[in-house]
Design brief:
The strands form 5 sheets. Strands 1-12-7-2-3-4-13 form a 7-stranded mixed sheet, with helices on both faces. A two-stranded antiparallel sheet has the order 5-6. A two-stranded antiparallel ribbon has the order 8-11. The chain is α+β, with helices and mostly antiparallel strands. The protein is globular. Strand 14 and strand 15 form a beta hairpin. Helix 1 packs parallel to helix 8, helix 5 packs antiparallel against helix 6 and helix 10 crosses helix 11.
Length: about 325
């Protein structure tokens, strides 16, 4: 009995050591950039933790054949943001749920030192650092962590976990995104998943697109954290390698920060789009103008770790 106990103890210790070693390896392999910096009018630190998650249309590392396979549209110059999500995690002891907020990439906001333009322009002209600063000033939230993934990395990550199941209520046929999906639940591989989160070929166009992105993010995290993936080295290792090779984070972020984010997104979360006042046009083209009063109340609630008022939620999910 004692020998059996010793063998079991050794196995547990080896598994623990292997887990720690894998964590250290993944953390050291993450690409890091200086995305978050201090400046004179930066918002004060709020309650809880706030992430800025960015899906860029960067095609770095993709061959022409891979670009064609993923229907990325080829090299269009400077990278732009295809997805902008602000995720707020409540502080310890808070009863409020995590909240995921989509920011339309055509949002017309003030960009420091560049005047007013679509928020997407901040990433194009100033990269992650200017985008993060623009988001902070537009929302009044201090960003604590930053993570970014490009087209190829997104598809690789989805394939690494064995695909993700989504259930579109209506068919989606979008040649520009390279998809022709029937209605109903189905497993999406990396290529079709990328088309799904990029497509605007639905009844509400960009509003549906942002809702699909939030739903897919939650489903991807749930899949990645499932026993089917975590307890299977043939799936866990490719997922970890894909994350290490394709995810870019702020220079102060670590794998355990990403793990906490993933864990928080597995539970019940609030999914919203920034309350929109109007869709209109100006010299920047088609733009989205926020409902400033409702948006201020939304981000004020997140900053103080208090529940978002129901009328704001209704305005944020038309």
């Amino acid at each position: 009995m004692r020998r059996l106990f010793r063998v079991a103890l050794v196995i547990v210790m080896l598994l623990a050591a292997g887990t720690v070693a894998a964590g250290v390896w993944i953390d050291s392999a993450l690409t890091r950039i200086s995305a978050l910096t201090d400046y004179s009018d930066r918002p004060a630190q709020g309650e809880g933790t706030t992430w800025l998650l960015v899906g860029s249309d960067g095609r770095e590392g993709l061959t022409p054949e891979q670009q064609a396979e993923l229907a990325t549209g080829g090299d269009l110059g400077a990278s732009r943001t295809d997805t902008i999500l602000v995720v707020h995690l409540p502080g310890l002891g808070s009863a409020t749920p995590a909240t995921m907020v989509s920011i339309p990439r055509d949002s017309y906001v003030s960009i420091p030192e560049y005047g007013s333009d679509k928020i997407n322009a901040a990433f194009s002209v100033g990269g992650p650092r200017l985008l993060a600063r623009t988001v902070e000033l537009a929302t009044g939230l201090r960003i604590d962590h930053y993570a970014e993934i490009g087209f190829g990395g997104f598809a690789e990550l989805v394939d690494a976990v064995g695909g993700v199941t989504m259930c579109p209520e209506a068919p989606i046929s979008d040649p520009l995104a390279g998809i022709d999906l029937p209605a109903g639940c189905q497993r999406l591989d990396g290529r079709t998943a990328l088309g799904y989160v990029r497509s605007r070929a639905t009844a509400r166009a960009d509003l549906d697109r942002m809702a699909n992105q939030r739903q897919f993010m939650s489903a991807l995290v749930d899949r990645a954290a499932s026993p089917t993936v975590l307890l299977n080295p043939l799936k866990w290792y490719p997922m970890a390698r894909a994350a290490a090779d394709t995810v870019t984070v702020n220079d102060g972020d670590h794998i355990w920060d990403l793990a906490r984010l993933a864990w928080a997104l597995r539970g019940d979360i609030v999914n919203v789009t920034v309350p929109i006042g109007e869709f209109t046009e100006n010299g920047s083209g088609s733009i989205v103008v926020w409902d400033s009063e409702a948006a201020q109340r939304l981000f004020g609630a997140l900053a103080s770790d208090t529940p978002v008022p129901q009328d704001v939620l209704d305005a944020a999910n038309p």
